Amino acid sequence: MKRLTFLFVSMILMGTGCIGDDILFDTLDPELRITNAPDVLALNDTYTFEAMYLNNVGVEEMVDLEWSSLNPDIISIDSDGMAEALSEGTTSIRVQYDDGTNIFQDDAIVEVGDMTVVTPVQRTGTINTTSSYVLTGDFTLSEEGNGVKLDIAANYQASTALPGLYVYLSNNPNSIASAYEIGAVQTFSGAHSYTIPNTGINDYNYVVYFCKPFNVKVGHGDID
Predict the structure, then answer these.
(1) pLDDT value at position 22?
(2) 3-state class of 125 per DSSP?
(3) Containing H/E element for 107?
(4) Per-residue pLDDT, 119
(5) Do residues 175 and 141 lie in contact, with contact meaning Cβ atoms separated by under 8 Å?
């Protein structure tokens, strides 16, 4: 009985140690973004654009999107996001969503040329601790196959005292409710990487670290 009591008290203390000084708020500004824009679209070629709407807690919602081309003589686009390159030049493809109160919008500049080009995207960021424990390091997110690869840099350091440390990709820096769980942290110092299948380079905006047993955030990095 004494042993069980000791373990329970220890877990409470460990959980308390994870908590940072910040008060966490889950609400965010809703966001609409194009997720797969090409750099160049081949003349007379077609291409289906995709977009993602994230609500005020960073969760994707299916909404009615309105697509348009700022110069439909160069690229036309229908209501389903299917675009056709009609003449050489450069124009912007726009997506909008009207929720009845606000209009959300994103634009992608696309050139019409000899061949369709979608340049591999690479995004970067820096992990910062939100607790009293050490958690820091740079990272790079890049496209790989049908998914992405998260490379953590050599300057990464994480305290081994953090209990049940897990890493996630999320669209809300303060919640893992709809996040992609990459897994338990096994490396606490130096360079390492994670391969995440069936995930787009623009699907998430944050790398987030939580003490999973206590659902307590201990750090995150914006994916720029």
Answers:
(1) 42
(2) strand
(3) strand 103-113
(4) 82
(5) no
What separation in angstroms does the CA of 138 have from each of 19, 124, 160, 188, 224?
Answer: 22, 8, 18, 13, 12
Question: Per-residue pLDDT tens for 125-171?
Answer: 999 999 999 999 999 999 998 899 999 999 999 999 998 999 999 99
CA distance 40 to 190: 38
The confidence score (pLDDT) of residue 21 equals 42
> How many whole angstroms separate alpha carbon 80 and alpha carbon 198?
22
**Residues 139, 149: contact at Cβ < 8 Å?**
no
Q: In the numeric block, which tokens belong to residue 97?
A: 């969503």
Please name the residues in contact with 107: beta carbons below 8 A apart, sequence gap of 6 or more: 34, 70, 92, 93, 94, 95
The confidence score (pLDDT) of residue 219 equals 97
Mean pLDDT, each 10-residue run in order, the chain (224 residues): 37 46 65 93 96 90 96 97 97 96 96 91 95 96 94 97 95 92 97 95 95 94 95
**CA pair distance 137, 152, nearest whole angstrom:** 7
State which amino acid sits at residue 187. T
Q: Which amino acid is at 38?
A: P
Could you tell me which of 121, 117, 118 has the C-alpha nearest to residue 149? 121
Is 178:61 a contact under the CB 8 Å cutoff? Answer: no
Q: How many C-alpha atoms does 39 have within 13 Å on its Cβ side?
A: 7
Domains of the chain, CATH where assigned: 31-113 (2.60.40.1080), 120-222 (2.60.40.200)
CA quadruple 18, 19, 22, 26: dihedral positive or negative? Answer: positive
Instruction: Kindly state the greatest CA–CA separation across the chain.
Output: 79
